[in-house]
Amino acid sequence: LKFGILVASSVPCEFSSKSNSVFRLLYLLQQESSSTELRTECAVVLGSLAMGTENNVKSLLDCHIIPALLQGLLSPDLKFIEACLRCLRTVFISPVTPEDLLYTDAAVISHLMALLSRSRYTQEYICQIFSHCCKGPDHQTSLFNHGAVQNIAHLLVSTSYKVRHQNYSVSLILFTKIISLTLVIKNLFWLWTTLPCLVRMCSKERLLEERVEGAETLAYLIETDVELQRIASITDHLIVMLADYFKYPSSVSAITDIKRLDHDLKHAHELRQAAFKLYASLGANDEDIRKKIIETENMMDRIVNGLSESSIKVRLAAVRCLHSLSRSVQQLRTSFQDHAVWKPLMKVLQNAPNEILIVASSTLCNLLLEFSPSKEPILESGAIELLCSLTQSENLALRVNGIWALMNMAFQAEQKIKSDILRSLSTEQLFQLLSDSDVNVLMKTLGLLRNLLSTRPHIDHIMSTHGKQIMQAVTLILEGEHNIEVKEQTLCILANIADGTTAKELIMTNDDILQKIKYYMSHSNAKLQLAAMFCISNLIWNEEEGSQERQDKLRDMGIVDILHKLSQSSDPNLCDKAKTALQQYLA
């Protein structure tokens, strides 16, 4: 049976959970009356079966292979233990195996920790199992509480590369549970020893696995620290060194050598993914670093090609790199336009998993800023409908990015674009966004409204068609339990409406809104007072038609008395604004 599996290893082979041979193997594995050699061979054969298709693993799980193998770990025979661990490793690294199966019995983790000291192979297999079964805070806590740090940390200096490699994976997963990253990166020892060491791991003289791990670890550790990004960027010509990651393999393998071809493709994807990740971290904040990255050999072409990679992980890393570089005003105007990066980006947005959509839509937000040459062609490619659909997503990040991009799109836009946004979004969806429980969605929606209601002709046009709904939304927000920033943004929208020629009458004929403006003029928060006074100033400006009637109505409401009080305020902004408003009454 073992020989047959090995011979057929190049051909996908499946078996049923009802297979008598599998039940027989598991039976012999668990029989203490069986010789140790026989039980070991059974574990080896089961491990070989697990290396087949995902259906094979599902069938083995249905046959309860994991409890049988875990029971085998209680044997005193080291060879049998290693065979069971090797088979467990193969089963657990399969995407169809639930990680929680490892944690059903706390005694299992304790026993695995004890087995770490038995041999190099037990160390390798157990570290591989832990690295694939530590997927969240609960798993991290369980491993940490069972002494994972004490038992695994010393393996970082193991003479076995495979043990060091797997131990790194476990250590990195446990890292967020154990210690604050900030404390580590501020340590001078880390700065002057570990960082250069990680950079050297990226050298083309190192093993492919080391180059990948070095780049990904460095990307993770410098992601949020500007100073570390600058130091890393000038260490051993790292930016240029990473360009070599895109040159693997140096020659195309013979098409007849399928295994070599698969090997090359796998490592090429891993190298490109790691390079994109590190470039993204390096260019997260510093403009000079972004410029150096983009000036690297064929960099923009590589990013564009990365957006259409077959590997989802490479596509995601390429989009993250593009997002990082898109923070540069200069590059938006030059390199991004020269390579028309908006085209492949829009294609990515048409059909991608949420994790890619989130980063791609964030990048689109930057490409839609008013100074970006990409803004116009993006509009012409049907971006409005796409972004409006994102605002309806159940995913919070996608809703935020969708409305954020629309907000950038509406800034200083033509009236037609603003009308298209409102028509595609619909007032119903606008109300839905304004009632969203997330403050970021609410703030970006208010920002969109504020940008739509700018310049008098646009204000009057939009309020003539959507005025009733907008005023209703404004009222609801001012009456709701919202923070200062939300209320301030809402009052600024009212100030824009008050600046319209005909739109201001929607405020003057709404006594409820006028009373709310009056209330916020006397609020304890200076920002809200100032925003409310902008509304009043725009309503009473005496150079505009009907100003006298508006002034009289507001005087009767007691607005002038409040202005006199505010003109004595210790806040210079409030004082100046109140005096300017009072001058309109004296003119």
Structural account:
This protein has 587 residues and is mainly alpha-helical. Helix 2 packs across helix 3. The chain has 38 helices and no strands. The chain has helices at residues 2-7, 20-30, 36-50, 54-62, 65-72, 78-92, 106-115, 120-132, 137-145, 148-152, 161-178, 181-185, 188-201, 208-222, 226-233, 238-242, 258-282, 287-294, 299-306, 312-325, 329-333, 335-338, 342-350, 354-367, 375-380, 383-390, 396-410, 415-425, 427-434, 439-452, 456-479, 484-498, 505-508, 511-521, 526-540, 547-556, 559-566, 572-586.
Summary of the model, kept short:
With 587 residues, the chain is mainly alpha-helical. The protein has helices at residues 2-7, 20-30, 36-50, 54-62, 65-72, 78-92, 106-115, 120-132, 137-145, 148-152, 161-178, 181-185, 188-201, 208-222, 226-233, 238-242, 258-282, 287-294, 299-306, 312-325, 329-333, 335-338, 342-350, 354-367, 375-380, 383-390, 396-410, 415-425, 427-434, 439-452, 456-479, 484-498, 505-508, 511-521, 526-540, 547-556, 559-566, 572-586.
Low-confidence stretches: 3-12, 173-186
Mean pLDDT: 87
**Helix fraction bin:** over 70%
Number of helices: 38
Number of DSSP strand runs: 0
- Rg over C-alpha atoms, rounded to the nearest angstrom: 32 Å
Distance between the termini: 102 Å
- Which of globular, elongated, flat, extended, rod-shaped describes the shape? elongated
Structural class: mainly alpha
Strand content: under 5%
Main pleated sheet: none
